[in-house]
Amino acid sequence: MYSRNFPWSYLLLFLFIAGCQSDPQPAKQATPAVSLIPAETFLFNSFVDCNMATVWVGDSFRIFPGKYGEDPLWGEAHELKYASGTTVDEVFLHPPSAFTEPGMPPNAPPGIPGLHGAAWFETMYQDSSDATGQTLFALYHNENYPSTLPYDSITGEGYRDINWPQGLKGPDTKTAVCRIGIMKSTDGGKSWTDKGIILQDYQPRLILKPHNNGINFAGGVGDPSAVANGDWLYIFYGEYGYPGAYDPSRYDTATEWEGQCISIARIALKDLDNPVGKAFRWNGTSFKAPGDSTGKPVTRLQIPLAKGGGPASSPTSLYYWGPSVSWNTYLSCWVMLMASAEGPSWKGGAIYISFNPHADLSAGANSQDWSVPDLLIEKPGHIVWYPSLQPINSAEDKAARFTSLRLGKKARLFYKDNDGKDSRYLSEYLLEFKKPGETEPGVSR
């Protein structure tokens, strides 16, 4: 959509968003808009392959990028680090030497309870009952393989190494299964205690050979973003398993597609300290499906089969993944960014945006009422993923303690960008949100 040769100094592009709708079949109405403004490029100096979790601890802005733990495919990682500063720009421009590895729980041997596989911190909840701001809960994306989490016939957890699909590094490698867990810190993120897995799929829902050729995941749930609303933490995540038991003799492409894309679960804030078994998925009418059972994805965030949408196990399907959700105080609206799988496999060169107008996500089906995603940016020839919005470096944003989860009229857009040569986490644009009626006459998509 945007060429690097375009005269950016003359650009003020407005994207009218088909968002903030409450009726499943709404009449045409005034909608918010977003101005995408080219800005000074920020190149991030530490490893990122996840949503960028940010939080204010006192007067210190703190970020938690990276990956930690055992990984048979890519090797053991110690890249999950944190950095702090008094301003947003200072922190995002820190040199590698300014990042510190926190105290993390060790990986447990296969068959022993504990942390298995690698972990990425994707989103952060700051306990409002702690006036010091030091108590944090991190939702982490967790990946395992049959070798790190072998099947346990008693608990039902773990995986059998039979007909396992190919991994990202070629036919001789295996793909992962993702889960979502919670860790807790009482010292502002300097050290962490694992509280366990709250959302996962078991062996029967994994999609195996010969049908899984997407080199993405064998199944599971992952890539979470979470926001506190009322008494609940709402968790937005990617759904990659089969909606029921996978039987290769009865496999159906449309059935897999119906149960996949971006889903929502929730857990009570009071349960975060002891969360296992306390998270529930949306079952189509309410949050009553257990965290290890089958839920229903958000319908409007699924790409129809007739428009190229399909299951995550296919290398040619279109689908949205990697949600990043924030509350926008200026619009009084929830904002979701997401990447898109456009092929081959999970790769794609575009970022999309969606809105939800309901301040209270607990009432009825409010949590599911997201607008059909609209294109925000497109970078042909690039792979872009893990978009997030972050505060701008202003006195107003600092005073408001804005983070990746709560933002105002303007925000800085970050994403992971691979141009075929380098893979970098960067920011090239600011976003300015506009209420209906604030847009310039005659401007349209």
Structural commentary:
The longest helix has 6 residues, at 253-258. Residues 1-29 and 441-445 have low confidence and may be disordered. The chain contains three helices and 26 strands. The strands form five sheets. Strands 5, 6, 8, 9, 12, 13, 14, 15, 16, 17 and 18 form an eleven-stranded mixed beta sheet that branches. It has a five-stranded antiparallel beta sheet with strand order 1-2-26-25-23, with no helix packed on it. It has helices at 88-92, 253-258, 395-399, and strands at 13-16, 33-43, 54-57, 60-63, 68-69, 77-78, 83-85, 118-126, 136-144, 166-167, 170-174, 176-185, 193-199, 217-229, 232-239, 261-268, 280-282, 287-290, 319-328, 333-341, 350-356, 374-378, 383-390, 406-407, 410-418, 423-434. A hairpin with a 2-residue loop joins strand 10 and strand 11. It has one domain (8-434): 5 Propeller (Tachylectin-2, Chain A), CATH 2.115.10. It is mostly beta strands.
- Helix % is under 10%
Distance between the termini: 11 Å
N-to-C SSE string, H for helix and E for strand: EEEEEEEHEEEEEEEEHEEEEEEEEHEEE
The biggest beta sheet reads: 11 strands, mixed
Q: Briefly, what CATH class?
A: Mainly Beta
State the shape. globular
| Class based on secondary structure composition and strand pairing | mainly beta
- Strand segment tally: 26
Q: What count of structural domains?
A: 1
- What do we call the CATH homologous superfamily? Glycosyl hydrolase domain, family 43
Contiguous low-pLDDT stretches (5 residues minimum) are 1-29, 441-445
As a percent range, the share of strand residues is 35-45%
Radius of gyration: 21 Å
Give the averaged pLDDT, no decimals: 91
What is the overall number of helices?
3
> What is the CATH architecture term?
5 Propeller
> What is the CATH topology descriptor?
Tachylectin-2, Chain A
